[in-house]
Design brief:
The protein has three domains: 232 residues, inorganic pyrophosphatase (n-terminal core) (Alpha-Beta Complex); 149 residues, no CATH class; 126 residues, Diaminopimelate Epimerase, Chain A, domain 1 (Roll). It is an alpha/beta fold. Helix 10 packs antiparallel against helix 11, helix 19 crosses helix 20 and helix 21 crosses helix 22. Strand 12 and strand 13 form a beta hairpin. It has 22 helices and 17 strands. 40% of the residues are buried.
Length: 526
Amino acid sequence: MFVEDLCEDFYNIIKGKHVILFVNYDIDAICTCKIFQSLFRADCTLYTLVPVEGLQDLIQSYRKYSEQAKYVLLINCGGTIDIVEKLQPNDDVIFFIVDSHKPTDVCNVFSRSQVRLLGKAEESENIPNFEDIFIDSETEDESDNDDDDNITEEKLLKNKKRNEWEEKRNRIMFEYTQFSFYGRASSLVIFEMLWHLDREDIDCLWWAIIGLTFQSVMELVVEQRYICELPVLQLHLSRLSTPSNNSERRNANDYTLSSRKDLKLVLYRHWSVQASLRHTLSTAAKLKLWTVSAMEPVLRNDFITMIETITSNYNLDCLIFHSFLMTIGFKQPYQATDYVFAMIALLDVNIDDHSHGDGFLEALESLSRNKTKIIDNGIEKAKKMLICIIRQVQSLLDMNQIISAGPFLYFSLNEGSLDSKMFSYPCSLAILARYVLGAYTSFSKNKRASMLPLIASVATSEDSCIILGIPPSSELVPRNFFGKAFEQAAELIGIEPLINYFDSSAIKIIKKDRPKFFEALATLLT
């Protein structure tokens, strides 16, 4: 069931208790976790933090920690699955779920008390009516107890109605679950709760802004959602800004947030202008900056003239947007997008052979205002990741390795190939996939190119590979049908995924199953 009064029906229940905190490996989830950590420490609420990568990880971790507490909080995980069926908890365990992944599982929606979804139901979900998808248990028992030797006209009519109801239910559930998409950022939902509790501060606001910006950078939501959230965030910023925040006098310990129009160029305050232009998806795709020779005529003018020319001549108004900046003392300001790319690099980019769990903790720690060295390290890692992306795009285009399989495009990176370790996890692989699709669409002479989705696959070890799908570049609303397609393809060839990620458009399977998995996808999507 949905819980709209988060203060009374959620936080006052868990305050001071022991909570198991399951957190997905994404930036919005990490920001939400940081907000909860701040709140829990202030209220002496004991918590056990458990990062989880996918469904299998969640099930194993719950079995390990289930005896510790009866309150379980899931952040960006668990909302799209029947959590009670999967985890088989005791009757006294209560699950609180804040999850931006959609659609929400109907069993969670209509749970009477054990599963509580934080926030309001979003209209875009179009949740089915209860009576259309659940049948009364007494009616079901009557149907099961019918005597086959004594079939009457009345019973035949009942069976006919039951069959019609089941057909309608199957159609409704298919329409409800065929696309995966994203709702409001979880960090914003929880920041709003802090506001109602009168417990918000400038740090929590910054973390919520990063969570929203992550959705925008990864193109998980329509641009209008980001724009609609801006005025409210700006009001919070005005309210929470201290006199020192607004003062023109600054010292080395000042911590300020500001909102302003800015350039949507990746890491441009921490990189050269040329590098930033070359590694920003919109400019790289529209200006075809995948080769050095293509860049020369564009970059010889001064910066302002260049930006004006680009925006007017190349339909790149998206280069200017309203953003938020954080400044500490006299250091170079950090745009919210800088934090997003840096945290993705800390989380996913496996340069030093550290574990994914280590990356999670490092990304979480980078949000502390006194840990800018970590975020600076993340920015350097992000630069390496973006350089690798451009290199991979050039290689894939030059070698004609972006293959058309009829209903979709795909490319694969094998284990041991240059930079493959950079893209072993969903967030970093999704960025690579978007760059590849943008480049292919801008270069291809195929008129259907912009209408084709893309599947990216990377071998993560000798035996396993991750597969991720993104919608066509022409898709105005970021809805993804690959989650359902991956599920059906796995069933068709009779395999069990190694990891079912909480974003269902990504899956990890045994590498030797990849060819027949792709064949099954081509059959299903034709």
